[in-house]
Amino acid sequence: MPKPAPFQARFQLDIQGHLGPVHQLAVSPDGKHLLSADAQELRVWDLATRQPLHRWFAPWMGMEPGHLLRFALSPDGRWVVVLTLNRWRDTLGAAAPARSELQVYELATGNLQAASTWPGFVQDLAFSADGRQLLLACDPGAGEATQLQLLGLRALLQARFRPWPVPLARLQGLGGEGLRLALRSVPGGGWLLAAQARRSPGALVWLAWDRRAGLQVQRQVHTPVGLQVRTLACSARHAVVAGYGSPRRDGRLGQLLSYRHDGQALPRTLTESLPAALAFDAMGTGLLVGLQVDGARPPVDGVAVFGADLPPARPGSAAYFNGPPMPEEEGLGLQSVQVNAYAVAGDALTLCSSYFGHDDSVRALAWAGAGLALSSGGDNQALHAWSTECRFPVRRWALRGSGRNCFAPGIDADEQLRFGVLPPRLLPPQHPQRQQCFDLRSRSLSTTRASDVDPDDYASEKWLVAGELSPVIQLGHLDDAMAALDALAEKAVDAATFPADLSLYVGADDEWLLWSRSGFYDASPRGAQRAGYCIDRGREQEALFVPADRFKAFYRPDLIAAIVRHGSEERARRAGVAIPQLALAQMLPPLLELSRGGVAVEGGRVTLRFSVQQLGAGAPLERVWVVANERFAWELKRSDAAWPRRRGRQREQQFEVRLPLRPGRNVFKLCAETADAKAVPLICRVDGPALASAPAAAPDLPAPGRLHLLCVGVSQMAVAGTPQAQGFKNLRYAHRDAIAVFKALARRRGQAAGPLHNPAFSAVQGELLTDVAATRAAVLAALERLCAPLRASAQAGAPRDVLMVFLAGHGARFAGEQDLYFFTHDVEPASMDRSGLSLLELGRLVTSVAAEVVLVIDTCHAALAGDDVIASLSPEELGQRLHALNERGLTLLSAARGDEIARENPLTRQGLFTGALLDTLADTRFYAPGPPGQRALTLLGLMHGIETLVPLASAQAGTKPQTPVCRSYGDLLPLTLYRR
Fold first, then answer.
1. Which is more confidently placed, 945 or 119?
2. Are 765 and 901 within one domain?
3. Where is the Peptidase C14 caspase domain (predicted)?
4. Which among 220, 286, 672, 960 is least surrounded, fewest beta carbons within 10 Å?
């Protein structure tokens, strides 16, 4: 058996939208799904919720992704056939033959069903009206004539991943190399082809096929001017295509050429500029016309501009999708570009609506029902929905990601990267600019003062900047980039071997992401959500997108800082920085899939059967677990006796789990991990038994479980006052804070040695550690004692236990370290990796138990001493990373934002945050009604009280502002912490 080829993987942004211009839109026949494609990916959206469902990526082309040229949706809406170009030029100066591929996906599941390769360039494709055949325009290259091939859809599906199936029919003699073709299905049957050759007007060709006569030309019409063939649109009665040139001498107007299917030409319709896309509605009574930016060239001797001696456009380029090269970049952002909607009555086109909502050529159009148009062009690749029922409509809604184009990026000698984010059309004439400014050295974002762009802003002698009109700014070391350009000039190397040394993405929400060639990255708190990796699993499986938080090795701010300092990964390595050479394809996360009949419900319990496939040849599967309704419910480790020892042919292991169902909707999250990466969770939703009528207790106060409470306060450090403290000083009240919170939440019953009690819980187990007793080993041991009984009772449906950890003391993050550390009594700041208590290490323990986890942090969140200490992790980032450890719920209450210091109040002899927490416990304003005669303080009430009282306390104490941060990750279910 041949050894399977290794998977390929590459860094991939996830901006919840398109990164490049959208060149094709389509709506499924049932109106439920929208398909949108750019040159590298096709997205499927749920139109009801406007949420993404599937992402299909273009295959790789050497070191670059290939080009997604076109797609065709079957008339029944079941199949999507995607046409990609997988190879164009391997090296400059040595042209390799093109290789195109058809990929057939099932729309409902997103699964790849078949793929076949054509050893040439396929320009376009179209389904037959009944969906049984697929017509393709194939260009073999090497000067051979272009030919049409008719494939049977059933034969294509049955071929699976074998070579190109035998065509049902062929038609040749359409012209030589360089002929541009576009194919469309005629709703009544047959196909229409638009053709444009060099130095000649265009042509429209009507085609038909039957089993006896084969594929034949029914009629052919030569157009008076050259055609923009990609704009071809068909209804059951008409064919319309954009033509170059116009009766105006300057040629700035565009025109629509209209024909009946009997070949009869209809009056031409002038447009404000050259059309870039056309689309009929399902009934053929409405026509959308998207225009290009105003830059059309005049015709040459009455023939289209394509008649000039221009080389054929490279497939995948803007020129390929939009006709011959146009100076669109000069107009992008300088004007509003419109979409016209025409009513089709008889053979006449009547303008009824013009939508001005785009700032680039409108290349993609579709109808989402009667009177609702969809269009895309500029506007940071957003998809707009608007009504054609009024003459100048406004946008109803838009599908847009967080990306936005950057204008005029540049970098100065201080490594301040400046770029504009507003299109010039939105600024008044001669308006001074404000730019975004990203400081590479500190990785911080700011806004410049209002001024003109100064040449000194682009005076860096270290960096070369690219990325104009793109959401991603690319930086390369200047010396290396110039050497690469010299090599390219000699046509000695492939341009794709010189990717950017650093790439910067700044979203519309001001969250940023900075990554290197190898995929190491630094990010703002929510910017890390945009990082991911596209995994190409070969031609027989669809590519996967894996978020970056599935891996354990790529969030490396220290390595990004070293690359900024030295200019590239290789230069940093030569300077002694240990940047690992990571083989991403060898450390891929496992893949979870439900088995056949994978969800079975019987007798109030559910059985989940699923497989876990190990991708690549990296570390083996270590652990599999299930989270039921945001509670840790089941786990199996590699060291357990029940671990399956046999693996399937595709390195799959089978698992079966039986769990109880609670009434109503149940959500099960299936998880798995290796030593290097974690799988994307597989979510299963199962309906449980019907809810009983009229519960005896209040529905928001479920049966009380146990409280497991750990309070740690460290005011005194053993190394305080010595050089090993690195400037950190003792605190005054952190130990008092821990004692006060412990006494407030876990009172003693009766005598001093009596059991702990909290009226909201059936039992309380507590640990209190302060100062000398709060060593790193003691804290971990106490936490283990609290977690052990929780692990033993890991059963779904049990009373809701709560694990609450309170920390008061110093907290900081150090250069070269990814973690936020809490300072225990025996900490040595010079060796935090062995003496400090990492909060992520703490998180691995607290999020691995069957309990609701509440983590309360009253620590200093700012740089306090020396150049080795930098600002800590923000509360948002910390919470996201803790939540990602075990894919379950977590509530994080933090004393201050990442750029603020958690203060102590000498008046109350407590931390401001802890004082507000205790005041909330005593203030009935924040309590909710409970059982008769009682009031309950829920977790939401505690968060509300803390967020209300901390700013008041900081103002009363006369300190600098302190803003608490309260975040919940996972489902926030009603949870009572105290009753009065």
1. 945
2. yes
3. 730-923
4. 960
Q: What percent of the chain stands above pLDDT 90?
A: 34
Confidence at residue 953, expressed as pLDDT on a 0 to 100 scale: 86
Phi then psi dihedrals of residue 548, to 5 deg = -65, -25
Q: Which two tokens stand for residue 561?
A: 């800082």
Cα(636)–Cα(672) distance, integer angstroms: 10
User: Maximum distance among all alpha carbons in the chain?
Assistant: 105
Residues 166 and 67 in one domain: yes
947 and 917 within one domain? yes
Please check whether residue 290 lies inside any domain of the structure: yes
Does 138 map to a domain?
Answer: yes
pLDDT of residue 773: 95
CA quadruple 657, 659, 663, 667: dihedral, nearest 10: -40
Question: How far from 965 is each of 521, 831, 834, 913, 975, CA to CA, in Å?
Answer: 25, 29, 29, 10, 19
Lowest mean pLDDT segment, chosen from 232-236, 436-440, 517-521, 956-960: 956-960
Range of the domain at 947: 705-979
Side by side, the strands of the sheet bearing 444-447 are 407-411, 416-420, 436-439, 444-447
- C-alpha 503/C-alpha 512 separation (Å) is 11
857 Cβ contact partners less than 8 Å away, ≥ 6 residues apart? 807, 811, 822, 839, 875, 892, 893, 894, 895
**Domains in the chain: how many in total?**
4
pLDDT digits (tens, 9 = 90+) for 335-368: 788 999 999 998 899 999 999 989 889 999 999 9
* Residue-wise pLDDT tens digits, 896-915: 876 677 888 888 889 999 99
Domain shared by 524 and 606, yes or no: no
* Domain co-membership, 239 together with 300: yes
The secondary structure of the chain in percent helix, strand, coil, rounded to multiples of 5, reads 15, 40, 45
